[in-house]
Structure formats: C-alpha cells, structure tokens
Structure to design on (805 residues):
C-alpha cells in the first residue's frame, strides 16, 4: 500500500507552524499549533481534525515542504473523524465509479490535454489557443476512467485515492505521451504533488493549464488586445498543491491587460464554500454563506467586472451568486480567448 | 364501406376517423409491457356532442370503446383490449376559463399537462396546478381518471382531490354535470351536493369525462430544492414525518436507484420549496438544515448535498420524468405505482431491491409523499429492452411480483393493469365488489366502456 511521505523531523524543526497558525478557519497560536500537530503526527485525536474545513491551504502555508494537509486527512480517516456525514461520503465515493463502458484509447499527437472528469467542458478548448492540441477524456460516459480522485481529500478517504489512482494513471499512460496538460488544477495537483507524496509513480509529466495558456499566449502575442478589465480570480483549493504555478495567473493577467487587485488573493484566497456547506460540524452552512459573502463582497469592492475560474466546482458554486452581483463568471481559457479577439466558448 | 366507419365519419368528419392499419397500429400498444391489441377504429371527436353520438352508436352496436388522452399510463389502461373504438380525446383541448381569484380552471378533457402549465405561466403567472411526473403530453383528465398525483401532492393530495366539477358523457350517451356546475354557471366546488364520484379512478370504465374544473394553487416566484441523503432506509419515514410537520415543502420525494452509481444504496430525499422572496426561502432552508434535520447531520447519519444553482434548476424544472428507460437499452420501462403507508418505505425498498436483483434489472424505486405523510406513491420501476422479448418477460414478472408485494405490505395498487386489477378484486371486500358491479352495470349496461378493465365477474 502506498504511504504518505510525511517528514516528522521537518515538522519538529519548524518554529512557526504556519500550517495551522495561518489557517483562515481556525484561530490557533504557535504553541497550540505545535501541540496539536504533535498529536496528529502521533495518531491522536485533535480538535484540528474536527474543525478542519479541508481547504487544502495548509499544504501551501507549510514552509518546510512537508504535507500537513495530506496528514490531517489521513488521520481523519484512520480515527474515523469524517468531515462530512457518512452518506455523503458514500455518495461521493460512488460518483467516481465508471459504469458506462471502457474508454477508447486512441493514438494522439502531443501536445495532449486531459479534460479529466469534465468532458462536458470540451467546448472551452476551442480556438487558436488550442490549435493542434489533442484532447483525451472527451466522452462523458467514460470520463470517470480519467478522474484524478483527489476530491476524496475533502471526504477523508485517501484510501480511495490510493486504491484508484494507479489505474487512472495507467489509463492516461496508455496514450504513450510524455507530457499531459491538465484542464483542472486538481488533476495537476494529483500528479505533481499528491502522487509523489504517497509514492505513486507518474510516467508522464503533468503540465498546468495556466502554464500552457501563458506560453501559447506568448506565441500569439501580436494578436492580443489588452482587455482593460478588472477581474477577480477565484483560486481553487487544489491550487494550493501547485503554488509554484500560481504566478502564471498574474503573468497571464499582465499579458492580456487585466487588473486583479483584491484582498482575497494568493495565500489569502477564500474557499468557494462548496465543500464547507456539506460538512457535519454545526454551523457549517452559515460559515459557507459567510465565506461566500465576504468573497463576493470583496470582488464587488475591487470593482471586478469578471470573476475568473479554473475549477468547475468553484464555478458551479459561485457563478450564479457573482452574476447576481453583476460580475460575469468566466473560465480562464475563455478570458484568454477574449484577449485574442475570439468569442468565449462559455458565452454560447 | 363499413357502416360503422361511415357512421363515425358522419359524426366527426372523414379526417378524424380511421380504420387504416398504420394508424390503428399506433393505438394498439402503450409504452409498457402490455401485449398490443389493435382497435377496429380510431376516432378523434372535437365536442361533447360528438362524444355523445359516438357512445350512442357504440352502445347501440355494442362496440367496445377505449378512451385515451396521452395514452401514457404505461399499465395498458388505454390499450383497446377487446378491439372496437380507440377514442382519442386530444382534439378536445380548449382551456375554457381560468378564475384567478377563486383559483380554478375549467378545461376540456384533451388539455395536456404541458399545455396548462405553459398557459398559466403566460397568462396567470400567480397560479399553478399539480403537475405529475409524466411527459407533458399527458392529459389532465387522463390523470384524474386514474387518481394521479403531482408536484403539489404533499400539501394538497391526489390530483383527483383537486377536482371542482365534471362534465361526463355516460356510456348510454347522456351528458351529466357534477358539482356546483350542475346548478350554477360557476365550476368552483364539487361539494356539498350528494356524492357522485363515479368517474374518478374508474379508468374510463364508467363514462367519458369531457370537461372538468381543477383547483389551482399559488405559484411563487422562486423555486428551490434541497436534497437530503441517508444510507439507512429505516430513517426515511421519520425524516419525512419531520419535514411534513413544518408544512414548508411543496413536494417531497424519496428515491434510490442503482444507476447512476452515486445513488446506489442511498436514499435521496428531495424537498421542493417555493418562495416569493430570498428572505422567505432562507427562512425555509434554514429551518430544514439547522433545525429539523440538524441532528442527523451532526450524528453523521445524513447530510444535505451542496447543490449548485444549475443543479437546482434541473431538479425544479417541470416535469420531472424518469430516465430509467435507458438502463437496459432499447428504451422500455414500466413501473408499479402503489399507494402505501409511508412507514413501509424501508420494506418497499428492500423487497424491491430483491425483485430487481432476481430479474437482473438495475433497481429504481421512488416514494412521493401524498398529504402530510398520509400516504406515499411508491414506485418500483423496471427497465426493459423493447427489442428483446426475454427482457420484456423479465420486466413483466417483476411488475407482477411488485403488484403482489404492494398488497402484501398493506397498500393498494395505483392504476393497476389487468393483472393488478385481478389481484385487488380477489382481495377486496365482497360487498364492495358487489357495489362496484352494480355501479358498472347501472352506468354501462352493455359493458362497452374500456372492457377488460375492472371487470367484476
């Protein structure tokens, strides 16, 4: 069985415990953080395991390059402290079971982009930005064969991820490609962060969509007309697993001439609330509503005209609410298309 | 030329009668597992007077008459089991009157659910009717003739409980009005005249409903839904009881099915709500999440699904029609709907699961609450492949077992097909059966109306 490579020594050497002290949803001082992390490392109960909203952010806050979030989730499962009610866990775990046949493995020419479990969003991969790109996982009936499974971190079910991920990797690897661009940064985080953290080999190089988009925009630089728009970027939880790629957000924004100044950006970004609302701890519905309200209010105060998404789950959760406030929801790829004079695929 | 055909053509015009095989074929079957039976004539009248003339002719010549609206009962109720005339009522599709303040509509029997919904949305946006989970071409009259239920069943009961008045043509050709419309121009109430409820639930065996008045209800501006999930089916009745106690839900549906995989072994309880403001909606939502069902969430026994606005829009769109016909390929499905005590939900689920497993059909069950937990319509749905006789046979067997199960568990079968009718009549109290026979013989002395159905020997 695959095991999390959590380096206890790094944790012991840490003086700041940023993983917990920076948490936006728990108020924890350094001493408490040290005590609670020790309990978690030792496999003991800790209030952190009960109060964690599973926003992934501590994985980024940790300056020691350790994996506090993966450890928290493993302990939640081991100690049977599920963040959400059991029936919803079962429901979520069953969502990922393919039941409509095997995927067709066809010969593809690189560059290759995997839509993962969002085959129905293939319309977002049109136009010059994606010219010459081969798509995999375009059939909604079989897309769960390409499902990265990382969603189950929210469900305290790393056992499910470890069990299923090797098969998913094998399916993708059958395409015989060296590099795969991942549409969703949850997939990217799976192959670039989680798989190595638990010792699962990935025989292809994952490429972050934003890195691809930035490089492609550079190639199309002459065709860019600055948009001169104010936007708000909704950073997804899984982006915390690839903070080294976060700069591409600003790089793209600078290239296409959009302004994205607001309070809840970068490390300070707020969760969309989609997962918080399902959690069993009392008051979570109100917490989710409060987080969403603060987030959207911040977008309004920043004068955002567009809310830019990468994550379909964030989009589903927030797009209606931001639209009501007069802020158009848009995927990053569509924003980039807008900058090169194309009509966004999502504006059908 | 066939004299009956000629007489029918004189009544409705040449364009609205047929004895051609390709058209009779259409009327020979429904979408369920019932064996097809071809009528001799298909006739589509436009007026009550034409219906009268057709029934007088049929009664005189002793020709069976099988009336149909959308023909969507799935249980074979509109299949002309003894041939004769398939009486297609879809041309009688006028919406005669909507009384906004007294909240009722008077319409002809061929008006469809979709037609009424769209008419109200356009002309009377403050009103709605209880729309069943059937395709939009299902008719209002067909639905009340089988005691159907719709998406307002939880607050207001069966759709046939919402009838304010009827115009019917008896098998012998006389026209009768029932309710206030028999003594006044207003169709606003069925009561308090002596009860003549001889046409609701009789599946067209006692006469033809040609006009009816149906109660309408407030249509609020915002439609929303919450979805509560539990794994333990034994919890469903008490959860439903608690939800109905709030009197805040429009519709409550508990369901479980093998496909798609996420729902297998779980029970989703859809709670549909409406409101005129976000404030009203939040009040109701908070009540369900933070009060009524909070204990189950804290204990980990149940939880609300985080539904996006798009998902909610899908779940509140009308009508909600089953997609189960795809499960076995070949596009077939039929269900046994039974009116059951809500407390039997766990056993209905478990036994239905077993029946499906025995017949190699992915299980699909659903319970729609009628009244404040007074009853539920529980359906066991079986998909089959229309091109595969063995698949149809398996589904038919499963349906028959489910008919028997409904009665065994203390319920009654809703809109039973011939097999289910027989089971009910075997168990029904003898004096009740005698009364049914007397009523039938009195109204239909020659037994021409939808013969083969509800035949008391």
């Amino acid at each position: 069985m695959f095991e999390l490579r959590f380096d206890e020594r790094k944790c012991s050497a840490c003086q700041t415990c940023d993983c917990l002290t920076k948490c936006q949803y728990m108020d924890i001082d350094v001493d408490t953080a040290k005590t609670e992390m020790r309990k978690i490392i030792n496999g003991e109960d800790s209030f952190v395991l009960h109060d964690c909203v599973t926003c992934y952010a501590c994985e980024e806050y940790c300056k020691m390059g350790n994996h506090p979030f993966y450890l928290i989730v493993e302990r939640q499962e081991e100690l049977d402290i599920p963040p959400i009610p059991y029936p919803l866990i079962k429901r979520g775990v069953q969502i990922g079971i393919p039941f409509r046949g095997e995927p067709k493995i066809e010969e593809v020419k690189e560059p290759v982009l995997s839509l993962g479990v969002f085959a129905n969003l293939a319309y977002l991969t049109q136009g010059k930005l994606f010219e010459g790109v081969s798509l995999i996982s375009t059939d909604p009936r079989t897309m769960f064969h390409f499902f990265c499974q990382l969603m189950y971190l929210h469900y305290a079910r790393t056992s499910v991820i470890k069990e299923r991920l090797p098969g998913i990797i094998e399916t993708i690897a059958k395409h015989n490609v060296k590099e795969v661009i991942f549409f969703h940064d949850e997939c990217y985080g799976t192959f670039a962060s989680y798989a190595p953290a638990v010792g699962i080999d990935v025989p292809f190089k994952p490429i972050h969509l934003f890195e691809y988009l930035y490089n492609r925009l550079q190639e199309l630089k002459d065709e860019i007309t600055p948009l001169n728009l104010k936007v708000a970027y909704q950073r997804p939880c899984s982006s915390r697993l690839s903070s080294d790629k976060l700069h591409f957000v600003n790089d793209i924004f600078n290239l296409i001439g959009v302004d994205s100044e607001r309070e809840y950006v970068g490390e300070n970004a707020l969760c969309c609330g989609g997962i918080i609302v399902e959690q069993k701890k009392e008051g979570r519905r109100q917490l989710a509503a409060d987080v969403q309200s603060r987030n959207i209010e911040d977008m309004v105060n920043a004068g955002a005209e567009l809310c830019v998404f990468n994550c379909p789950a964030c989009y589903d959760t927030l797009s209606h609410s931001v639209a009501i406030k007069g802020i158009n929801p848009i995927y990053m790829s569509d924003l980039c298309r807008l900058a090169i004079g194309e009509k966004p695929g999502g504006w059908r | 030329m066939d004299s009956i055909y000629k007489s029918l053509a004189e009544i409705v015009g040449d364009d609205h009668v047929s004895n051609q095989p390709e058209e009779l074929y259409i009327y020979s079957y429904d979408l369920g597992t019932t064996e097809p039976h071809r009528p001799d004539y298909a006739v589509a009248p436009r007026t009550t007077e034409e219906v009268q003339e057709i029934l007088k002719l049929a009664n005189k010549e002793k020709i069976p008459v099988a009336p149909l609206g959308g023909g969507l009962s799935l249980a074979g109720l509109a299949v002309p089991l003894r041939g004769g005339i398939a009486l297609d009522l879809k041309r009688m599709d006028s919406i005669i009157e909507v009384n906004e303040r007294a909240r009722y509509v008077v319409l002809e029997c061929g008006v469809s659910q979709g037609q009424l919904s769209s008419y109200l949305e356009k002309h009377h946006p403050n009103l709605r009717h209880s729309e069943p989970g059937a395709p939009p071409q299902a008719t209002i009259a067909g639905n009340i003739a089988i005691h159907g239920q719709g998406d307002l069943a939880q607050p207001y009961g069966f759709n046939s409980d919402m009838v304010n008045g009827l115009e019917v043509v008896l098998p012998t050709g006389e026209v009768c009005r029932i309710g206030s419309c028999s003594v006044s121009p207003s169709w606003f109430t069925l009561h308090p005249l002596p009860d003549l409820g001889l046409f609701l639930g009789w599946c067209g065996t006692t006469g033809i409903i040609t006009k009816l008045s149906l109660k309408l209800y407030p249509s609020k501006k915002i439609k929303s839904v919450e979805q509560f999930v539990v794994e333990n089916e034994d919890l469903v009745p008490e959860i439903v009881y608690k939800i109905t106690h709030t009197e805040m839900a429009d519709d409550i549906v508990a369901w479980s099915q093998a496909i798609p995989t996420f729902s297998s072994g779980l029970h989703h309880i859809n709670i549909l709500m409406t409101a005129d403001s976000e404030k009203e909606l939040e009040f109701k939502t908070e009540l369900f999440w933070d009060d009524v069902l909070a204990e189950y969430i804290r204990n980990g026994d149940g939880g609300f699904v985080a539904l996006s606005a798009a998902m909610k829009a899908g779940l509140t769109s009308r009508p909600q029609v089953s997609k189960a016909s795809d499960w076995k390929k070949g596009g077939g499905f039929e269900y046994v709907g039974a009116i059951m005590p809500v407390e039997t939900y766990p056993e209905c689920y478990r036994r239905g699961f077993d029946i499906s497993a025995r017949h190699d059909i992915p299980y699909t069950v659903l319970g729609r609450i009628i009244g404040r937990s007074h009853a539920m319509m529980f359906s066991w749905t079986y998909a089959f492949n229309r091109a595969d006789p063995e698949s149809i046979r398996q589904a038919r067997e499963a349906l028959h077992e489910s008919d028997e199960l409904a009665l065994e568990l203390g319920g009654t079968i809703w809109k039973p097909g011939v097999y289910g009718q027989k089971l009910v009549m075997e168990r029904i109290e003898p004096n009740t059966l005698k009364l049914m026979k007397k009523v039938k013989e009195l109204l239909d002395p020659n037994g021409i109306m939808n013969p083969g159905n509800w035949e008391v020997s």
Observations:
- The two ends of chain B are 36 Å apart (CA to CA).
- The longest strand of chain B covers residues 375-385.
- Residues 222-316 of chain B form a domain with the Alpha-Beta Plaits fold (CATH 3.30.70.3450).
- Chain B touches chain A at residues 229-231, 259-266, 286, 289-290, 294, 296-306, 308-311 (CB under 8 Å).
